[in-house]
Structure formats: C-alpha cells, structure tokens
Amino acid sequence: MSSFRTLDDIEQVSGKVALVRVDLNLPMNGGQVTDRTRINASAPTILELADAGAKVLLLAHFGRPKGQRSSTQSLSMVVDAVQDVLGREIMFVPEVAGDVVAQSVGILRDGDVAILENTRFWPGEEANDAEFAAAIAANGDFYVNDAFSAAHRAHASTEAITHCLPSFAGRAMQKELEALDRALGNPEKPVAAVVGGAKVSSKLAVLEHLVGIVDHLIIGGGMANTFLAARGVDVGKSLCEHELKPTVEAIMEAADRSGCTVHLPYDVVVATEFAANPASLRTCNVHEVAAEEIILDIGPQATEALGDVLKTCRTLVWNGPLGAFETEPFDAATVSLAKTAAALTREGSLVSVAGGGDTVAALNHAGAGDDFTYVSTAGGAFLGWMEGRELPGVAALTP
Question: Catalytic positions, please?
C-alpha cells in the first residue's frame, strides 16, 4: 500500500477551513438516528481539527436521492446525533458550495463545526464532476477524507476534490488503512482468510485474489456448497450455484499453484427446512446429505479443525459468516471460530481483521468483535480491498 498523508502532515490548522468527508449515512427510525457507530468513528478527527483551531465543514452523503433535493434525505436530520457525540453545537448549512457556504464560513469561529447538505442532492457528486468539486473546494483550505466506507467510489467529494486541495487521511481512515496493510498488504505469515456468505458469484474477484496471497482459504456459508458440488458432492436442496463449477475448478487450480490450502467442510449441519431448531436437524458427513436436505452450517468436527488451522497462523482476514448464523442453531460454527480467533488475538498470536455488514453482525453476535485487532464497518470498500482493487478515495490521498 502506498504511503498516504495524514493529519500529522498538515502544516497549519489554526485559522484554516477544513473540508472533512465523513460517513453520516446513518440508520434512521422515525426520524431518529438508531446507530451512532459511524459518527463515533470520525469524532476523533473532527475534534482534533476543531481543537487545533480549524473551522470544520463536514461533507457527507445520505441515502440515494439521485441528484435531487429530498426533505427525507437531508443531513439536517442527523445534526442532533452528531452534536450529542461531539458534545458541542453544530451549524447546519443547506448547501455544499457557493455564497451560502462562504457566508457560513464567515460566521463560524475558529474551532466551530458545520455540516453541509447531502452531497448527493447534486448530480455532480456521483458523476465525479470536476467543476462541482472545485465549487465545494473553493470554500476550504485543505481536505480530509475520514470515510473509508465511501473510498471505493470515485465521487466528487471523495476523488475529484483531491485535485483541488491538499488532501489527507483522517484518523479513522488512517487506522483502517494501517489495519488493512497489516492484514493483506504486508502481513505476517501464515495468513488465513475466512470467506463466507451465500454466493460465490458475489465474491469471485475476492477468491481469485486471495488464493494468490494467503496460505489458508476457509470457505463457508452457501459458497461452500458450490465448492462441494463442484467436487462431486451431492448437496441436496442446499443453496448452490451449480453453473459455476468451471470457475470453482479454476480457483482450486490457482490455489494449488500458489500453495494455498482451500478448506471445505467435511461434516455439516442439515435439515429439511430452514427454521429455528427444526425437528429434522442432524449433523452428517458431506457425502451423506439426503436429496431433500439443506446444508445450513459447518459441522463441529470441521469447525474444530478450522480452529486448529487458525492456531498455526499469524494473520486472519474474515469476510462473511460460515452458516445461516441469524437462525439458531446454525450460528454454531461462526460463533465457535470467531471465539477461537478472538482468544488467539487476545493472547497476541494472531492479527485479526474483519469487515462487511454481515460479518460485523456475526462477530458481535458471537461476542467476539471487540477482541479482533480491527473490525471494519465498510461493506463495498472492504470487499474492493479484498479483491486487490485500488480504491479511488484512498489512491487520491497518496503524495
């Protein structure tokens, strides 16, 4: 990973206007913010700049208004939640560029914070329009990106703006990039990757990239069924992409060439219907799945063997659950392996980095998330990074 500029590289903060890209795309219910994780993530950057005497203007998107103003997707709705987290009053500015913003900057004192309107109210945002970015940049002295979750998109407020102003990574972005570098950029070997989830097709690029750089690839979720079927195993009525057999074979061959061991379950938890604790629940060898049965989790023997694999590794990257973890008892493998990874991380023998929405939920369900070295809440950006893609919002921060 190329080196990137951070807040430590800003020569003068006091008396300057900082345009700070944050993630305020927050879950709402009845007009109230229901989860403040993303505000908490950017609070250190916002407060560090404000306390150093900058006027801080926050840039963010909210929902998908498709280039139109929408009262239900205005960032004015999140002001109270941001004020609560930061512990200070915040001005809301109903524009992102032009005279209204310039006048607001004139009213702000050094150390004050303002939230600008939803960047996606303007078509120029998603078009990565240079003129729109220049108009936003005109009211700032430097730019800080603290929204890794939006870094996989080349939008005006993440990419084009960096061509107009000196640009830096905020503390949350810096932490994320450093954690990712430890996990796949420059990892301590052996490296294991857990890739789960429903479909191989959604993570093809991830699998193709990982087999070339990790020592152990652990496949779970519905994806494991597709791999098993490609190997000639009858997976009954399980979720499976049979048409991907040639693709799976190519991935397995690439793994062989690069010395990566692919781990597939040899015992599984099955039932004839997908429901909590069904009467038809049983554990069996993968070769004993009946025609009417559905594979819903990895079995206990395979799970224990995977735990033993992690004990031999120094680095772990995790994306996706091993089974249908939202429904008991099909959370057993995910919970067990997550707890093993958390224990190894606590004792200092494993660097563990996880990311993606389902993954965060699964690790929290297992009570293991807090013990991982780093858990990324970014979905698309985390997957893009696991695919080995250059993320536009990150590339823009390199000198």
Answer: 38, 199, 357, 380
